[in-house]
Structure formats: structure tokens, C-alpha cells
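Quick one: NAD(P)-dependent dehydrogenase (Short-subunit alcohol dehydrogenase family) from Bradyrhizobium algeriense, C-alpha cells please.
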Amino acid sequence: TGQVQGKVALVTGGASGIGEAVCELLAREGASIAVTDVDDLKGPEVVARIKKAGGEASFWHHDVTSEERWIEVVADVMKRYGRLDVLVSNAGIGISVPTITEMSLADWRRQNAVNLDGVFLSVKHCLPAMRKTGGGSVIMMSSLAGLRGAAGLSGYSATKGGVRLFAKSIAMECATFGDGIRVNSVHPGIIDTPIWGKIPAGATGSGQNAPIDPEERAKMVTPLGRAGEAEEIAQGVLYLASDASRYVTGTELVIDGGMNAG
Ligand code: NAD
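--- reply ---
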């Protein structure tokens, strides 16, 4: 049997990149997956691939910044699967500018809304469901940029640093509550996903003004000399989602090819 056999997992931003890899790996290891995303094309494709491989999944159109939608989606997932064991709060965006003086307040707020409001709403509305069926595991997608600064991505870095301490705080709350819910954050380094193409050219996280090629950049700054694969992050999420990590809460799992070591 799989490492998360019989569990039900809700994954935000599940249509692409890391979220997609998480959906596919958790499904392969026996979980039923609620794939949620604003991408109505790729989301159902992920579900179809999981089903074709013999797994179980459903798609919900879901903007993580909408509280009304969170209420509907969690109620729907509970109706369909009867429980919620794993929340992977993964949806996120990166907005980069060569220097912070070029950041508009609208972009600053949009990034905060997806990366921080979305994570807040995810636990606000999933914890009650998880408590009803005996606890579970919450995994928040932070970043290496949540552990140390990232020039050109300062606003992004602020949101991800916020996610890191939010995870630790909720971990302590849940432990005090005695509700059987563990909460941890994951910190990817440079991972080859479509997100890099969506970050407007202008800054690279190193302060250079050039479009970002994750593979090129990873070669220069990563001890292991290459960009990571989404599946390599999904393996860490699988560990935190499974009972193998039952004594792990409030911690941060760095998966970065060694970037944070030196
Ligand atoms: P991605 O762009 O491939 O996937 C992100 C997904 O989130 C997309 O499917 C997108 O449609 C969805 N999304 C965006 N806004 C949303 C919203 N408001 N509501 C719901 N869904 C929304 O990116 P990825 O690289 O897979 O990133 C996943 C997470 O990992 C993000 O939180 C990102 O910050 C983090 N991360 C990525 C890297 C990397 O190098 N790729 C590094 C560190 C952290």
C-alpha cells in the first residue's frame, strides 16, 4: 500500500509545476486528491492523468484569495470524500522588479493576496474540517527566498518569510490545541517549473537585469549544479504528508541542491 493510502489531500495551485507533481505523487501513493487552481485547462488535465494511472482526483476552480470560494470548496471536498487529512497550500506567484521603487502598490498587494491571504484562508477553512476527522498534516509552500533575502524579489521574499513563521505559529497552536494536526513549511531552491516564465523579466533574484532561465541560474549558484525538478519537491511533501513524519511539526524542509548551505 502507498505511503498516504486512504488519505484525502487538497492541493492549491495543483495545475502546474510543484503542485502538479505533488498531486501526481500523492495520488500514486494512495491519496485521493482535490486539485484546485484558477487554471481551468491544466487542472482537469492533471485529474485526467491521475485517473488514467488508476488514482482518484477531482478538480475545483479555486482562487485562493476568495474566502467565499474556500467555504464552498472545503464543503464540496468533505461532501465528496468525507474527510480531509492533508492540505498543501502551494499556490503562489512571484513579481520581480529591478529595484523596489519600481514596485506598484497594486502588484505588492496582489502578491501578498495570493501568497499570504491565500495561505491564511487555507488554514482558516481547512483546520475545522481536518479536526472533524481526527487531525492531519498542513504543508505550506515557502521558498529559499523565505529563509534569506532575494534582491529583485523582495516583496516575494517578504511573503515567503511570512509563510515560514505563520507555519511555525500555527504548528504551535495546533499542538497546544491537541488536535492531531502538524504544520510544516517547504523551502524549494531553484526548481524548473513554469513559474520562471511568469516572473516578468527585469530582475533575477540576484539583482541582475535579465530574463531568468532557471537552469542557467541554478548552474551558477547551486552546489549540485542544476535546477531541481518539481518531483524532488513533491518527495518532501510526501514525507510531511505521511505518518512517517508523525513527530515533525513546526519545522522547515529545505530542498535546494545545497544553495542554503554556504
Ligand atoms: P507554477 O506557476 O508552475 O504553479 C503555480 C500554480 O498556482 C499555477 O497553476 C497557478 O495557476 C496557480 N495560481 C496562481 N495564482 C493562484 C490563485 N490566486 N489561486 C489559485 N491558484 C493560483 O509555479 P511553481 O513553481 O510550481 O510554484 C508553486 C509554489 O512553489 C509557489 O508558492 C512558489 O512560490 C513556490 N516556489 C517555487 C520555486 C521554483 O523555483 N519554482 C521556488 C521556491 C518556491
